[in-house]
Amino acid sequence: MNQRECDLIIAHTFADESITNRLRVIPQSGQRPVFHFTLDELDELVGDVAAEANHAKNKVLQEQLDQLCDRIEAVLSRYTDA
User: What letter would DSSP give residue 30?
Assistant: First the structure.
């Protein structure tokens, strides 16, 4: 996830604090942040993001959350398919 996606989750969803706190990681200079989630946590997170996307009144925010939801679902599918 990039910083914009992390900010979307923190600012616009009701995701559990145990998840959002991990998104507040500040990486070392020149490095990308690394996030560690269980599949259950990702499943919960995608539900929170999807719920907010479904209720967003702002069309741009809705599209951004839908795209983020798709990305998280893609990660989940890599581990849950087959």
Answer: T
SS3 assignment for 31-64: CCCCCCCCHHHHHHHHHHHHHHHHHCCCHHHHHH
Reduced to 3 states (helix: H, G, I; strand: E, B; else coil), residue 12 is helix
- Both tokens of 42, joined, read 């990702």
Closest CA to 13 of 72, 74, 79, 75: 72
Q: How many CB atoms lie within 10 A of CB 8?
A: 21
**Would the pTM of this model clear 0.85, i.e. be above it?**
yes
The token duo for 60 is 């741009």
Name the residue among 40, 45, 38, 35 with its Cα closest to residue 8.
45
Query: Which residues of the chain carry a pLDDT beneath 70?
Result: 81-82
